[in-house]
Amino acid sequence: MTSDVLVVGGGPGGASTAYWLARNGVDVHLVEKKRYPREKACGDGLTPRAIKQLLDMGFDFDGLDLHRVEGLRAYAGDLKIELPWPDHSEFPNWGATMRRADLDGTVAAMAAAQGATVTEGTTATPVVDQDTVTGVVLDDGVDRHEVHPRFVVIADGSNSRFGRGVGAARRKDFPYGLAVRGYWESPNSDDRFIESQLDMRDRQGRAMPGYGWVFPLGDGEINVGAGLVSTFKGWKDVNTSEMLEAYAASLPEHWKITEETVHTKPIGGKLPMSMSVGPKVGNNWILVGDAAGAVNPFNGEGIDYAYETGRMAAAHVADALGGNRTGLAGYSAELEATYGDYHRVARVFVKAIGNPAVMRSLTTVGLRSKTLMEWTLKVMANLLDPEEAKMSEHIYKAIEKTVNIGS
Ligand SMILES: Cc1cc2nc3c(=O)[nH]c(=O)nc-3n(C[C@H](O)[C@H](O)[C@H](O)COP(=O)(O)OP(=O)(O)OC[C@H]3O[C@@H](n4cnc5c(N)ncnc54)[C@H](O)[C@@H]3O)c2cc1C
Q1: Quick one: 291 and 392 in the same domain?
Q2: How far is the centre of ligand 1, averaged over its atoms, from the C-alpha of 166 (Å)?
Q3: What pLDDT does residue 393 have?
Q4: Domains held by the chain: number
Q5: pLDDT digits (tens, 9 = 90+) for 84-140
Q6: Are residues 122 and 168 located together in one domain of the fold?
Q7: Parent domain of 56
Q8: 168 lines ligand 1 (CB under 6 A)
Q9: Is the CB of residue 11 below 6 angstroms from any atom belonging to ligand 1?
Q10: Exposed end of the chain (fewer CB within 10 Å): N or C?
């Protein structure tokens, strides 16, 4: 049996695409190569943008084991500032943390409740003729057969073998990130603020563009991680596991972790950013989430953008199924209209902070000004109101000017 649409990958991107397609009455089949609950290297942090998407999908926030978060506590060395999530006309003013092992299966089940067929433990491989996926081989380790959907949504994450199989590739001149995380026990796991350390150093003591984080999970454990972006000389030589180890050893006292504290073995992953993977669509396929390079270069979040791009892709696929002759092309245009300007600013910004002097000034001078940091949080989490967003270039210049004054 072949469905009209096959979605490859059951992370946030694939699950939201399947949810919105099924809710729209489309015959859709989601295949996930692992089985839920499945591990995913992630900070487990949900910003207000992600919360909005989950609310729109009818996620049960009261019934599920999810830890609400009021804002961000940012450190640069010993400097500290607490910033509540801002009020916004479109997004809630709260965030949350939830283990991806629990979150992703829950959202896939929500897609199934809307009528999507969800198959776990099955790997999809494309059969391609030029720009068209003519078939998809589904392999569950016992049975291998080919299906022939009319459209294929590619949501197979940052490694995106399926995406490469159809000819999509990452722009090497765009920024790229690496991050690693582990879980530690902590008596302060109920903290209502997520935390970041902006002053990360390489072995020579130079400031690096990246940050360390502690995301409390509210269940006795905290998610501790570290990530960096590729815009500085020597980034390939950085060992992210060592970076995490050093950061974990330097956590503020309130987390109360010691060398004896039990923790999991850290795991890491890639962060393809700034819509760096393309083309976004072919004759009958479309990329979403990390497979499209949708991670925000400012802060490395990608769950919200996977939900958002999945929702957009679902609308365009439904349109194309309904006979819209422009097919899927409208999706690329919508991505550009929604994220184009923001990502252009973000690319300039992450390139600027690749300079250790700029990074150091931003973290030390910036953190002394609450107003500046409030703006920075809004920009970095993409939470500017529509009126403010029109001024984003202007705001960026103001931040850059302050940074330059300090350097
Ligand atoms: C260490 C780290 C920390 C992060 N922290 C955060 C954070 O706190 N907040 C945030 O917003 N973002 C964070 N991110 C980014 C975020 O994890 C990703 O952007 C997000 O998971 C993207 O969702 P996705 O659905 O596109 O891909 P994924 O979540 O990777 O899902 C892809 C799915 O496809 C499946 N799959 C792959 N190939 C196939 C195949 N051939 N057939 C069938 N299934 C297949 C995989 O098993 C996987 O389940 C972090 C990333 C890393 C590496």
Answers
A1: no
A2: 19
A3: 64
A4: 2
A5: 999 999 999 999 999 999 999 999 999 999 999 999 999 999 999 999 999 999 999
A6: yes
A7: 5-67+100-172+272-339
A8: no
A9: yes
A10: N
**Encoded amino acid at 285, one letter:** W
Residue 195 covered by a domain: no
Q: What is the pTM of this model?
A: 0.96
Bond into 279 cis (ω within 30): yes
Regarding the beta carbon of 362 and ligand 1, being less than 6 Å apart is answered no
Which atom number of ligand 1 is nearest to the Cα of residue 304?
11
- Are 282 and 166 in contact by the 8 Å Cβ rule? The answer is yes
In contact, 273 and 176? CB cutoff 8 Å: yes
- Domain match, 318 and 367 both: no
**Which atom of ligand 1 approaches the CA of 34 most closely?**
47
C-alpha 372 chain-centroid distance: 25
Encoded amino acid at 75, one letter: Y
Q: Do residues 181 and 99 touch, judged by C-beta distance below 8 A? A: no
Query: For the chain, which residues score pLDDT lower than 70?
Result: 389-407
Q: Which tokens hold the place of 260?
A: 């004896």
- Residue 207 pLDDT: 80
Query: Of 314, 339, 364, which residue is a domain's last?
Result: 339
CA of 157 to the centre of ligand 1 (A): 5
Query: Does residue 201 belong to any structural domain of this protein?
Result: no
> Distances in Å between the alpha carbon of 351 and those of 124, 176, 197, 207?
36, 11, 19, 14
Mutate which of 44, 133, 240, 303 for ligand 1 pocket (most atoms within 8 A of beta carbon)? 303
| Ligand 1 centre distance from Cα of residue 50 (Å) | 14
